[in-house]
Amino acid sequence: MSNVVAKENNVSPSVETRVNTDVSIMGIISQAATNPQCDVDKMQALLQMHNQVMDREATAEFSRAMSAASGEIPQVAKNGRVSLGGKVGYNFTRWEDMDAVIRPILTKHGLRLSFTTRSSEGGMKTIIGTITHENGKSQSSEMDLPIDVGNGRNALQAFGSSISYGKRYCAEMLLNIVRTNEDTDGLPPKPRQGDVITAAQKNEIVDLLRQSGVATQKILAWAACSSLDEMPSHLYQRAVKRLKCSLPAHERQS
């Protein structure tokens, strides 16, 4: 008996309110259905109103869970490393590291992250990430990617690499995850410093990217930003140094 009472007391206020609302409105509908003079159109309107109320409450519950989860997710360290054969390498966040951080937090708030794929034009693969709440509400994000045919990869490995890449970016978009270059050893990560680079600094980086042949995507992955316009100003000098090291010897500046 005491176990039953304890379980009932653990029901969250939002769920309890939703259940009570459901019972009260459904009770009215049930009573109306037993009346032979019941207006069917009015009962349908009442049922529609009930569904709308329940949908709004479920949406609000989902939004609260997402907000709480996002507020608890820390920055995720870039523990993976890609070597470019003598050129500028870069660090990246491995999917298994990201999953280890976000899964317990999502579970705590009644959320689940899942992925599916579909084929797109031009041999691309679309990765679709979906966060679903226990009440059924969900939010999705998707990303079109080419098959990641890197050095030494067979077809299956190339496909798996693209899937892993898409998972990371879909999760970042859904949960506003920030990646950091530093290994924090379990300590709270340091906040980003300063502002973003200026237009002139961006133009210099663009020129160096063109001269060095380094892909823009690689420098963005290194800087943990989605575009050059978002590159933090404190990374400018390091980015320039990295790119200059990738220039042909006769083009390097002192």
Top keywords for this entry?
three-stranded antiparallel sheet, alpha+beta, two-stranded parallel sheet, 3 domains, 8 helices, 51% helix, 254 residues
Structure overview:
It is a single chain. This protein is of the alpha+beta class and 254 residues long. The chain has helices at residues 2-9, 13-33, 40-72, 95-108, 155-175, 199-212, 216-223, 236-245, and strands at residues 76-77, 80-84, 87-92, 111-119, 125-133, 138-145, 179-180. Helix 2 runs antiparallel to helix 3 and helix 6 (199-212) runs parallel beside helix 8. Strand 4 (111-119) and strand 5 (125-133) form a beta hairpin. The protein has a 3-stranded antiparallel sheet with strand order 4-5-6. A two-stranded parallel ribbon has the order 1-7. The chain contains 8 helices and 7 strands. Helix content is 51%, strand content 16%.
Summarize the structure.
This protein has 254 residues and is α+β, with helices and mostly antiparallel strands. 51% of the residues lie in helices and 16% in strands. Helix 2 runs antiparallel to helix 3 and helix 6 runs parallel beside helix 8.
